[in-house]
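hey all, quick one before standup. I had two proteins in the batch that finished overnight and I want to keep them in one place so we stop losing track of which output belongs to which input. First protein below, input sequence then structure tokens straight from the run.
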Amino acid sequence: MASQRAEDARRRIELQEQDRRREGAAAQQLIDEFVVTARERGLVTEPLRAQLLDGHTAKTDRRGWYLNASRSLAIGENGEYFQLVVPGGFKERLRGVTLEPSLPSLHIGRGGRDGETGYLKEFLSWRLDAG
């Protein structure tokens, strides 16, 4: 009985991960289209800054386009999806932060309450319209 529950739990986790990867692939297609369109329209990338958990910001090793007003999400110039709120403190403020891309999601801020939730497609359109 216990081994069956463990197997069921393992299978649920496996299915959730498959769904995340599938959603990530669909989101990446939207991002790739965004990058092509942004370049066609001449949207210039800018150096990305990370928001540290202590409230400060730090330079990063990447350039891209911010997706939201709080500048907590960005698309890198090569189509990477970055979440820009990262752990760190004084050392990161001085030295900067190395960003790692995240698996994109079709829905931004799922479960969030900060007013910056919605569909990735809408955020990408907003960014293109903003110029």
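OK second protein, same deal, sequence then tokens:
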Amino acid sequence: MENIKEVPKTTKGLVVYFLWIILFGMSFSSFSVAQSTVSFTMSHGGMTRKYNLYIPASYNPTVAVPLVLNLHGYTSNKEQQQEYTKFDKVADTANIIVCYPDATPDPIAQQLCWNFGIYGFATNDVDFLEKMVDKIAQDYSIDLARVYGCGISAGATMCYYMACHSDLFTAIGSVAGAMSHNLYNSCVPTYPMPVIDFRGTDDTVGSWDGDINTQGIEDIIQFWVNKNQCTTTPVVTFPPDINTLDGAYAEHMLYDEGINNHTVEFFKIHGGGHTWPKGTVNVMGVEVPYPNGNTCMDVDATAEIWRFFSQYPTSSETASVEANEINAISIYPNPTSSSVQIVLPKQEKSSYAILDLNGKALVKGYLNEIYNVIDVSFLPSGCYFIKTVYGTEKLMIQP
């Protein structure tokens, strides 16, 4: 867990920083939850953590399905995020499971907040989210190669933090999120992370150009463009301005041709506030935009995020073992007790995963050359599998 260096270790500094966090969150009235929602608790770090799962009617336990973690903003909660983003509608048509976890109270204002490296905040949310997904995978059939993270405001910032400190997510989506200067300067992702981002030009909560705590949004986009080795000049389009009364319109920037066909997408919401595009809340039976600046009603952030997520892993990352039998990987030494070298058949890049005998992904990463050395000394002795786009090989780890 890192400390954000820009935050002075004084009471005044902490108060200033948490004022930014408070503004960077959302709060609104409570909402009803769909009947297909199941509530769970788990013990973590001496606390009882809570999360809701939305299970679509089409779910079949014999088929592994994608999982989307949808993180709420500061002062909000899992029920509000579920109602506001309406990701359940996507789950019903795409046959995915959506998880809405709760954060924990921050150390000053005691409001629910994700710990994305906040000084003085002891909660380890990186480990919590990883352990939570492990538990979900025990209860439901989850495709661990298709676990995605999205959120708004502080929840979106947590997704960026996870992209830098964990290999849990395959792709992330940010709405009104940011990266601290320290995270921006120290982030070394395990593998290139596809990113889709939405930011309003009139967002008075998060500064477009950055401030004492956060990096400017254009810098953040270019950071992930570079990490994915995408083209630096985007393809720019303007979605139709269908609703001319919402005070906002969208500009879409696509950075493509990245590693394994990865892309980075950015929706610049002209006139948009600190809101989820097309997100609404129920007020006395009527769906209305949340009043935190203009809500762009021309772009559906929920639908766009899932469209983006559903591309990953790309076909080049998920080529079947059968199609690549002639180019099967080599690993040695095997058995091993410390490290293993993976030899790819071609001078091309590949993602990899180390699986246990139940097919659960224990380690995920990225191979950048023909010869790659992977540390496996932390794994208990036994039988495992190493899976790449070129094939799968058995790995024996000895005491």
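Flagging for whoever picks this up: The two ends are 30 Å apart (CA to CA). The first strand starts at residue 37 and ends at 44.
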